[in-house]
Amino acid sequence: MKKLLLVAMLFISFNGFSQKLTKDANGNYHTVKLEDKKTNNTFTDDKGVVYPIYLNSKEKPYVIRKSKKTGKEYKQYLKI
Fold first, then answer.
1. pTM higher than 0.70, yes or no?
2. pLDDT digits (tens, 9 = 90+) for 11-44
3. Domain boundaries, position 41
4. What is the C-alpha to C-alpha distance for residues 60 and 79, in angstroms, rounded to an integer?
5. Alpha-carbon distance 18 to 32, whole Å?
6. Residues 6 or more apart from 50 whose CB is under 8 A from it?
């Protein structure tokens, strides 16, 4: 039980370090939501479908594709 509690505390502490903060004029801190950026570049797959390229908060490129089986959208990261 102690190990489970320790692991849970560890995950919670890692989540706290991954947030970006800004300070407003009153001295209060607020979290900043990092949004992905759409670039002007495109990616064409082997079937000729053209996808716009996005950059995540760590500047890694990806495209948004749709699953044929479920119809859900997912991110496919590109290796350059």
1. no
2. 565 554 556 788 888 989 888 777 889 999 999 9
3. 37-77
4. 9
5. 11
6. 42, 43, 44
